[in-house]
Amino acid sequence: MSSMGLQRIFTGLLLFSVSVCYSKLSCKEGHSGPTYKSMQEVFDLQSFRPAVNLSNPTIANISFTLYAVLGVNEKTQIVTTFLWLRLYWHNEFLVWDPVECDGITRISLPVKQLWSPDIIIYEFVDDDVSQACPYVYVNHTGHIRWDRMLRLVSACNLEIFSFPFDVQNCTFTFGSYMHTIRDVRVSPALAFEEISGNSKRYLETSGEWELVDILGETSILQFGIDEWDIITFWVVIKRRPVLYVVNLLIPSSFLMLIDILSFYLPPHSVDRASFKMTLILGYTVFLLIMNDLLPSTANGTPIIGIYFSVCLALMVISLLETVIITNVLHHSSMKYQEVPKWVRVVVLKHIANLTCYRWQDDDDVCPPSVSQNNKPESSCGSSGPWIIQPACQEPEQPTPINRVVDTPPELRQICQYLGELHSHLTSLQKESKLQDLWCHVGYILDVLLFRIYLLLISCYALVIICMWCIWISQS
């Protein structure tokens, strides 16, 4: 007979002897449970997978209960949770007859003395600092249950774009690290719906996050020529947005409301620009304070950060609008320029009709500087209604040729003074008329820009609210 045949016969006899020796543990009369000697023989086989036929894989059943969500770090993309983990597997060497062992059906043994499957969580990124459970329960049929507490620090791809109304989906992948599918198979000990229900029932934390659902599936992970059996759990958690709505969105909305109401300040008598500058400064301080509350990653920026940036940009646009209106209102007082014709047509006519701005005509807005009333002009210039004309000239009557009229110098000087006063009053009335016209131009533009500003804010707020409502309904 060849050497290969002898080796096969020897291997078969060895496996048969092992199966006979360790099919059942021995018990002594008067002792409860298996004997120490028989247990010690099992402990000596700790380094070997507890299977009589090594071609049969050891099946490890896994279940867990999510007890707490300790924290979510968006910057490092890490989720910290606390699990009650339960593992089941079968040790074919730990079998005894309860009838022979005084009715003992279950005993506890130190886990370090037995072989245990190297089940790990692939997303684990930190040391396990949770309290260890040193014992396992062993049934008389060889089934082992190991309950342990696990503080899980796992990597998770966090999507923060919809913050603070975001829903995160983190994966927990359970599987053997070393043993392939030929040696260790994994399967869920409970249905996924039952695992989710137990986690919702025992979840103790009522902080920022709440559990939505736990889903899972079994699959095979292939790496090269080797294959591993794994179970993937999807833990869906949702953020409670009340804290961020109260601390971020409502104060920002109040500041924007004050900025909108500042348009009702009269621009010609109140320094509206200074008020808006103070408001922008306060909003900048608000952004610096809430910067620590906003998550930030290299993948992108949350939409609430974009919302705050756009709000700041709108406040700057509001300040620029105030600067433009202030410049228009003080245009006449700087250079005394006439209102251009195209401004009269576009602003005072078309835009005024568009914004329903009511104002009087030119002749009613500012009274004319000179009222003729069919009165004759004096030789000193045009006379206003408050100037006595006879003081400057003599009545138009035919005088005798031989009569010589000689006007006193004092009367001429008085007439000159009255003419200069008339010119000054005329220029003042002209400036007043120009100022009134420029005021109307500024008010009309202010109303137009204010309505455009309201339209932008309304559209922007409507878009943000719709997007958040869509995300909330989908979650």
CATH superfamily of the domain at 21-240: Neurotransmitter-gated ion-channel ligand-binding domain
The helix count comes to 10
End-to-end Cα distance, whole Å, is: 71 Å
CATH fold-type name of the domain at 21-240:
Acetylcholine Binding Protein, Chain: A
Short summary:
The chain is an alpha+beta fold. The protein is built from ten helices and ten strands.
Can you give a write-up of this model?
With 475 residues, the chain is an alpha+beta fold. Among the domains are: 220 residues, Distorted Sandwich (Acetylcholine Binding Protein, Chain: A), CATH 2.70.170.10; 86 residues, Neurotransmitter-gated ion-channel transmembrane domain (Methane Monooxygenase Hydroxylase, Chain G, domain 1, Up-down Bundle). Helices cover 41% and strands 21% of the residues. Strands 3-5-6-2-1-8 form a six-stranded mixed beta sheet, with helices on one face. A four-stranded antiparallel beta sheet has the order 4-7-10-9, covered by helices on one side. Helix 4 packs antiparallel against helix 5, helix 5 packs antiparallel against helix 6 and helix 8 packs across helix 10. The two termini are 71 Å apart.
